[in-house]
Write a structure and sequence with these properties.
By secondary structure, this protein is an alpha/beta fold. It has helices at residues 13-23, 32-45, 56-66, 84-91, 110-116, 136-146, 197-207, 240-250, 253-271, 299-311, 327-334, 340-348, 360-375; strands at 49-53, 74-77, 95-98, 121-125, 149-153, 161-162, 165-166, 173-177, 190-194, 211-212, 228-229, 286-287, 293-296, 349-352. 40% of the residues lie in helices and 14% in strands. α1 (13-23) packs antiparallel against α8 (240-250), α2 (32-45) packs parallel to α8 (240-250) and α3 packs across α7 (197-207). The protein starts with 12 loop residues before the first helix and ends with a helix.
Length: 376
């Protein structure tokens, strides 16, 4: 068997055509394609506004800036995530605080969140791990009670639904990523969605150096050419050819999701009666977008299991190493932090291949190799 990665993009001729058209046009960056992609994306997730940027990480960073995270502020997030979910708080000189996970859903445990809230707490960054939505009603109840901002990390959750509503429409701000392993890709790219006009205006400013061209925001007005820098932002712009790719990909998102859910259901059926394997939990009233398909095995065999699958050309992976255990975090105040459930999960988790182009034959091969190891 050829090598099967755990995730990969699907690019068709229409996608290529969309990019080529932009390359032949007048604008390579900050042309019409960005606004088109933003409008199409906002409509898809049911948000009023969307701001496209150069990566999911940049999206989290401008969201933290728009939420006014600064030195002394604490932001609660999950340790079972990509480092960006916490790094974005550090970029703003805030303090990420890690709440342990719920061992059933692998998402942040809302009971743990409340224990960590104090007068310094400013926001919550829930991460919809693998595409399984967090308990958003409970997170919003806590946010209302303690006056906190909610920035959802939905890098895994494009197309996921919570109680019939699309992820991206629910909180103050929601971040998405268009890295090639995600549901749709721009090569690199990210998005923040919001329903709040003020947040929308600040997100746009932070994307481009903190510059405004809106006369109402200026201290003076010198003429047509005039603009002002009124905050410190960055260059987080995404190019037109990247957003042309994203817009073309977004047309097929339902097709992508359908296939991912089919693959997940087939893995579920194959493994549900094997006692050595824990399959993902399906929370009621939610519909996962299955960015990842993660199973758990006994931690004593995980390493061997991983190596066996890799030797057999199966590109399994482990998502994620608890963020606070990284040397950088340990050296910066997190050495004594321990989230027991997150660490147990990390020790036993393994991500199997799941992506639109995975064929039935490839999946059957993966299933057979998994069972062969477990029962062999
Ligand atoms: C992919 C990802 C991001 C953002 O990643 P970029 O590579 O910067 O687009 C953020 N959070 C999580 C959980 C992710 O998986």
């Amino acid at each position: 068997m050829h090598y099967i990665p755990y995730g990969r993009q699907d690019i068709n001729d229409e996608d290529i055509q969309a990019v080529v058209e932009v390359l032949k046009s007048d604008f390579l960056t900050t042309g019409p394609k960005i606004a088109e992609f933003e409008a199409q994306f906002a409509e898809y997730v049911g948000a009023k506004y969307a701001v496209a940027v150069s990566s999911g990480t940049a999206a989290l960073h401008i969201a933290c800036m728009a939420a006014d995270i600064k030195e002394g502020d604490e932001v609660i997030t999950s340790p079972i995530t990509f480092a960006a979910s916490a790094n974005c708080v550090l970029y703003c000189k805030g303090t990420p605080v890690f709440a342990d996970i719920n061992p059933l859903t692998y998402n942040i445990d809302c009971g743990q969140i409340e224990k960590l809230i104090n007068e310094r707490t400013k926001a919550i960054i829930p991460v919809h791990y693998a595409g399984q939505p967090c308990d958003m009603d409970e997170i919003h109840r806590l946010a209302d009670k303690y006056h906190l901002m909610v920035i959802e990390d939905a890098a895994h959750a494009l197309g996921a639904t919570y109680k019939g509503k699309m992820i991206g429409s629910l909180s103050d701000m929601t971040e998405f990523s268009f890295h090639p392993v995600k549901h749709i890709t721009c090569g690199e790219g990210g998005m923040v969605t919001t329903n709040d006009e003020k947040l929308y205006e600040s997100l746009k400013r932070y994307r481009t150096h903190g510059i405004t061209r809106n006369q109402q925001e200026m201290t003076e007005y010198d003429g047509e050419w005039y603009y002002e820098q009124i905050a410190l932002g960055y260059n987080y712009r995404v190019t037109d050819f990247q957003t042309a790719l994203g817009a073309s990909q977004l047309k097929r998102v339902e097709q992508f999701l359908k296939r991912r859910r089919e693959i997940a259901a087939k893995y579920d059926r194959a493994f549900q009666n094997i006692k050595e394997i824990t399959i993902p939990y399906q929370m009621e009233q939610t519909n996962s977008s299955y960015h990842l398909y993660v199973i758990q095995v006994d931690k004593s065999i995980r390493k061997q299991f991983f190596e066996y699958l890799r030797e057999n050309q199966i590109g399994v992976n482990v998502h994620y190493i608890p963020v606070y255990t990284f040397p950088y975090y340990r050296a910066n105040g997190y050495a004594a932090i321990k989230c027991q459930k997150a660490e147990q999960f990390y020790a036993s988790a393994i991500s199997l291949p799941i992506f639109y182009r995975l064929t039935d034959e490839e999946q059957d091969y993966v299933i057979n190799k998994v069972i062969e190891f477990i029962q062999g």
